[in-house]
């Protein structure tokens, strides 16, 4: 498993949307290891410790998570094991070997009652098991004392895997009419944009190490912590769906696609509550780490083109 490469990067969740993108964007930075579920069980601390001991990564990019928001309501123990305990264990093991951890979190750590975009210092108040488990993971990672970044993101989608965009496009081809919630506000985030941002951050910290001769922990310390990293701009789930179908209609004018109707949240009840406001202010990311997340419509255009190919 291990190699002599200078920069060993452990990526969890390699079969997921963000993890898959990371395998491509990180390829030039070092030796990338993306263990499958048979090699790394995020619900088992001993499995995590064994992988950390054997691979000895310089960076851990934790893209793996329990992301089934509604199912988490009925299996909170598993959600907390993967979303809270696993980051804690990664942090503890990273601290021992001088590694740094990049961890992805979520807009669901907020209750959604704020009327403007959330900044990193706003009070948290998750209203679902998923949100509480992700917030616990943030806190546990910070308490471990390791060098780390936490990137809260929202509405992640991509050209592959299981996500809202691909579901909507599939339904649009086979149904005459779709009804989509229009009262929840946020911004879709392309998984590849998150992966490119992560690669930028790692490369930047490694440049500091090389140029200043400091340790990785010392390079991360001045800028580490929590950041918001979601797509720029804002929309609703209805707006996202309508834009995607409109884009598909332009790409496939001969295809008959469903019409889209906005509905209230109460018309589509779910086991887990969703924040009404999921908008994230990402200005800290741009100011401190020199990265601006692309406008969500621009990214959607690229994804739609990729899907068509």
Give me the CATH superfamily: NAD(P)-binding Rossmann-like Domain
Basic shape: globular
Sequence of strands across the biggest β-sheet: 2-1-3-4-5-10
**What percentage of amino acids are in beta strands?**
15-25%
Structural class: alpha/beta
CATH level 3 topology: Rossmann fold
One letter per element, helices H and strands E, the order comes to EHEHEHHEHEEHEEEHHEEHEHH
How confident is the prediction overall: mean pLDDT? 95
Q: Report the end-to-end length measured between terminal Cα atoms.
A: 35 Å
Q: How many domains is the backbone divided into?
A: 1
Share in helix: 40-55%
Number of alpha- plus pi-helical segments: 11
The CATH class designation is Alpha Beta
Please give the CATH architecture. Answer: 3-Layer(aba) Sandwich
What does this structure look like?
The protein is an alpha/beta fold. It has one domain: Rossmann fold, CATH 3.40.50. The protein has helices at residues 17-25, 45-55, 69-72, 76-97, 129-143, 164-174, 191-212, 216-220, 237-251, 283-289, 296-308, and strands at residues 8-12, 31-33, 59-62, 100-106, 147-153, 156-157, 177-181, 185-186, 189-190, 225-228, 235-236, 259-263. The strands form four sheets. It has a six-stranded parallel sheet, with helices on both faces. A two-stranded parallel sheet has the order 6-9. Strand 4 (100-106), helix 5 (129-143) and strand 5 form a beta-alpha-beta unit. The two termini are 35 Å apart.
């Amino acid at each position: 498993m291990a190699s002599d490469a200078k920069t060993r990067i452990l990526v969890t969740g390699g079969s997921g949307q963000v993890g898959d993108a990371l395998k491509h964007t990180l390829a030039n930075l070092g030796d990338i290891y993306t263990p499958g579920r048979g090699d790394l069980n995020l619900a088992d601390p001993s499995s995590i410790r064994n992988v950390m001991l054997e691979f000895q990564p310089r960076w851990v990019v934790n893209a793996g998570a329990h992301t089934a928001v509604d199912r988490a309501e009925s299996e909170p123990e598993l959600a907390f094991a993967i979303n809270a305990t696993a980051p804690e264990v990664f942090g503890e093991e990273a601290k021992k070997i001088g590694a740094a951890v990049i961890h992805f979190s979520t807009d669901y750590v907020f209750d959604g009652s704020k009327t403007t975009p959330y900044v990193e210092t706003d009070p948290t108040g998750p209203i679902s098991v998923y949100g509480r488990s992700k917030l616990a993971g943030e806190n546990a990672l910070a308490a471990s004392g390791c060098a780390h970044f936490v990137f809260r993101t929202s509405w992640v989608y991509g050209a592959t895997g299981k996500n809202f965009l691909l579901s909507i496009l599939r339904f649009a081809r086979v149904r005459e009419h779709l009804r989509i919630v229009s009262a929840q506000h946020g911004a879709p985030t392309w998984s590849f944009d998150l992966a490119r941002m992560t690669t930028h951050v790692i490369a930047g910290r490694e440049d500091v190490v090389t140029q200043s001769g400091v340790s990785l922990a010392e390079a991360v310390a001045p800028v580490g912590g929590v950041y918001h990293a979601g797509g720029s701009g804002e929309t609703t789930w209805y707006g996202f769906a309508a834009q995607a179908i409109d884009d598909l209609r332009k790409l496939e004018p001969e295809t008959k696609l469903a019409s889209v109707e906005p509905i209230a949240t109460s018309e589509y009840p779910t086991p887990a509550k969703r924040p009404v406001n999921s908008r994230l202010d990402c200005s800290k990311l741009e100011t401190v780490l020199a990265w601006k997340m692309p406008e969500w419509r621009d990214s959607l255009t690229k994804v739609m083109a990729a899907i068509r190919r």
